[in-house]
Amino acid sequence: MSAATTTTLSTRFQVSSRRYSLLVLRIKLFFSIAIKGPKTIHFWGPIMKWGLVIAGLGDLKRPAEKLSVSQQVGLIWSRWSTQIVPINYPLLSVNAFVAGTGIVQLYRIWE
Asked: Which biological process terms from the Gene Ontology are attached to this UniProt entry (predicted)?
């Protein structure tokens, strides 16, 4: 190997080492966030609620007679997620999708 190749390899290693340390720093910061990090319900609530969106999309194959009108409350929960402190935007987004699937289901029931 020539000296230029060795220098280029060591420079690349330093750059990737810096990127790795920045990545580790960001991961540590993500896990240490006290308000909205993965150690709180503000993180896991919306993650688990995406199951309701998937279930709502699965209900599109069901006959409209078997759907429940009382279960379509996504708009109410969307409003609620803007009133809690701090505002939980991931929860707001998943509730908006739940409301969207609920509106589609209500339209199918009404029709």
From this structure: pyruvate import into mitochondria
DSSP-assigned letter for residue 24: H
Whether cis (ω within 30° of 0) applies to the bond prior to 86 is yes
Place of tokens 């220098």: 7
- Same structural domain for residues 41 and 8? no
Tell me the per-residue pLDDT of 52-90, one tens digit each, with 9 for 90 and over.
Answer: 888 888 888 888 887 777 766 777 888 888 888 878 888
In this structure, the answer to whether residues 28 and 39 fall within a common structural domain is no
pTM to 2 decimal places: 0.61
Claim to verify: residue 54 and residue 84 sit in the same structural domain: yes
Fill in the DSSP letter of residue 85.
S
